[in-house]
Amino acid sequence: MKITFLGTGTSQGVPVITCDCDTCRSDDPKDKRLRTSVLIETEDVTLVIDAGPDFRQQMLRAGVRKLDAILLTHEHKDHIAGMDDVRPFNFRSHRAIDIFAEKRVQEAVKREYSYVFAELKYPGMPQMNLHTIDGSILDICGLKIIPIRIYHYRLPIYGFRIDDFTYITDANYIPEEEKKKLYGTRFLVINTLHKRKHISHFNLEEALAIIKEVSPEKTYLTHISHTMGKHYEIQEELPGNVFLAYDTLSFTTGRTKGRLNDEVTGP
Predict the structure, then answer these.
(1) Domains of the chain
(2) Of 4, 26, 98, 223, which residue is 20 to 30 A from 50 by alpha carbon distance?
(3) Please, which pLDDT band fits residue 260 given cuts at 50, 70 and 90?
(4) How do residues 175-193 score in pLDDT, each as one tens digit?
(5) ω before 15 within 30° of 0 (cis)?
(6) 3-state SS, one letter per residue, for the chain
(7) Which residues pair with 224 in a beta bridge?
(8) How far apart (Å, rounded) are the C-alpha atoms in residues 211 and 51?
């Protein structure tokens, strides 16, 4: 399974409009962050977790030509605002894209994209099939996905575990029963906004505490604010098995002939 970070920034992205901080003025490509999303590819299935306002740009940059499904963590605009751009995949595959979301999030998608679900559809509209996440294990083209109930302040949202890979974004609380689903994860992705305390996101101290408890082999931090600081400076402060993710970073999971296979690529 190949994991590619399509975006690792907050709802504003990095650089932030009108901001003149050192991070936003940085020339390092690792400090250029689109809205948070991740691409997951196996031999049989290609899916994306969240499709925010940068979805089109992310698909073009990653060279994605096939998309089977989109998993939605929650309904905030930085996670669903790009879904109109599934149309090229509709045209290429001659089928609707499967969208997996809980009922509340589906209702938000229907409001945001009312024309997609209208009784009288205009030619060329996006095609989406909505499927319900209710906490049960999902089966997407044979890929088993475990939803993890987490909280974004008071908003219940979902993270996901696929085999030895777990993805959590926009969280500031994981119930103990749900945290058990993280144990045994080899590769963890977790949101880490910045160093200060925040009302609805883990900060660096809180994320590192979860990492220590869950003890994955490698962890990648995502949903990073410009106030976190420059990539190279923060990376030097992190434990050896924790990495500040950046856009286009990719790694593979799984085992080949008994050996771990986790080659990392990126600029």
Answers:
(1) 2-252 (3.60.15.10)
(2) 26
(3) very low
(4) 999 999 999 999 999 999 9
(5) yes
(6) CEEEEEECECCCCECCCCCCCCCCCCCCHHHCECECEEEEECCCCEEEECCCCCHHHHHHHHCCCCCCEEECCCCCHHHHCCHHHHHHHHHHHCCCEEEEECHHHHHHHHHHCCCCCCCCCCCCCCCEEEEECCCCCEEECCEEEEEEEEEECCEEEEEEEECCEEEECCCCECCHHHHHHHCCCCEEEEECCCCCCCCCCCCHHHHHHHHHHHCCCEEEEECECHHHCCHHHHHCCCCCCEEECCCCCEEECCEECCEECCCEECC
(7) 9
(8) 26
Q: How many CB atoms lie within 10 A of CB 245?
A: 26
Could you read off the pLDDT of 15-58 as tens digits, one per residue? 999 999 999 999 999 999 999 999 999 999 999 999 999 999 99
Kindly tell me if the per-residue pLDDT of 256 is higher than 50. no
Token pair 């083209």 is found at 141
The amino acid sitting at 17 is I
Are the CB atoms for 9 and 31 separated by under 8 Å?
Answer: no
